[in-house]
Amino acid sequence: MISIPSRWSGSLLALVVAAGLSGCTLTAGAPTRTLDPEIRRVYVPQAKNTSSRFGLGPRVTMALQDAILQDGRLELVSEPQADARVEVTLTQYDEQILATSDDDFPLVSEKLLTAEADLWDPYKKIRTVPLARRKVVGRYTFISDPRRMLSDTGEDADQKLAEAVAQALLQDIITGADLPPSPAQRKALERDLRENGPTKVVPEVDPKRLPDPHGIPVRL
């Protein structure tokens, strides 16, 4: 944490606003899709919030649904039509002060939220390993001094944090690297391997499960 002299605070606040509004990291070129191309329709239920910050679950759920609708690479559908069920768990919330003013009042703060997403086959009754696993850390940097005109309230900052997490989740779901199974999933996998053999626990996506009701190709 640093202390900012008053004469520099205006320039710093302008930089914080620009960084906060961007909400993403610039990358060169379009990233390659790593998600199975047969997964085109997804269902997003209510996110599970095990973090210390109350109320983020509904915010992230709605923000992720909106992000999918606006992005267009995946189609948001009800569960009976979905190729995958995207289950999101918010696991850790942190907030830290990055800078203070001359009088040691918090000037710039940052919120961080860790989210995990498991993509499950909605047609499998017995679940062992997901079709894909992702983990992201979303962050939002903001002016936390309420004496400043550009400061964010707690709810405003939470909403923008949820939107940042949703964008990071969507991008990572489509183009990110897959994670290994969780300890619970690994135990379930080992149990099924003992009981059923290796051929019955490999995740599969059936492209002929449901015809496209609209007949409109999905942009990949």
Could you characterize what this model shows?
With 220 residues, the protein is α/β, with parallel strands linked by helices. It has a single domain, classed as 2-Layer Sandwich (Double Stranded RNA Binding Domain), CATH 3.30.160. 31% of the residues lie in helices and 24% in strands. It is built from 4 helices and 7 strands; from the N terminus they run E-H-E-E-H-E-E-E-E-H-H. Strands 1, 2, 3, 4, 5, 6 and 7 form a 7-stranded mixed sheet that branches. Helix 2 (56-71) packs across helix 3. The N and C termini lie far apart (43 Å). Mean pLDDT is 81; it is low at 21-27.
Main sheet attributes: strand count, strand direction, barrel closure:
7 strands, mixed
Shape: elongated
> What do we call the CATH homologous superfamily?
Lipoprotein like domain
Number of helices: 4
Portion in beta strands: 15-25%
Whole-angstrom Rg? 21 Å
Number of domains: 1
Low-pLDDT residue intervals, each spanning 5 or more residues:
21-27
CATH topology: Double Stranded RNA Binding Domain
Helix/strand-derived category reads: alpha/beta
Number of strands: 7
N-to-C CA distance:
43 Å
Query: What is the string of helix and strand elements?
Result: EHEEHEEEEHH
Features of this protein?
alpha/beta; seven-stranded mixed β-sheet; 4 helices; 220 residues; Double Stranded RNA Binding Domain
